[in-house]
Write a structure and sequence with these properties.
With 101 residues, this protein is mainly β. The chain contains one helix and eight strands, in the order βββββββαβ. The longest helix has 8 residues, at 69-76.
């Protein structure tokens, strides 16, 4: 069980990747990289789980992907080679606690 602390809409641009192949459209593009700091309160130890969500947007087809936090942190420190074609993952949708679909 986890609780979200606030609804931060502050999204920061982190730059562009080197040329990668988009899994969605197959084109070679420079993805735009963005991050959103996410704070969650988990009912486990440690009690506060802070995580930065990094997401990449294809400028050609507008598909959105994510990468591991460690890869994103490395990219943020200007290590452009830290994100490659095999690092792209499907972005998981945040589901609010207690909401049924």
């Amino acid at each position: 069980m986890e609780y979200r602390l606030g609804n931060s809409i502050r999204i920061k641009s982190r730059g562009e990747t080197l040329e990668l192949t988009c899994p969605g459209c197959g084109e070679k593009v420079n993805f735009g990289v963005f991050s959103n700091f996410e704070r969650r309160l988990a009912v486990k130890m440690p009690p506060l789980d802070c995580q930065t969500v990094y997401f990449l947007v294809c400028p050609n087809c507008a598909k959105i992907y994510t990468v591991d936090e460690k890869k994103g942190d490395s990219f943020k420190k200007r290590q452009k080679l830290s994100i490659g074609n095999f690092d792209l993952q499907t972005l998981k949708e945040f589901k609010e606690a207690g909401k049924e679909e």
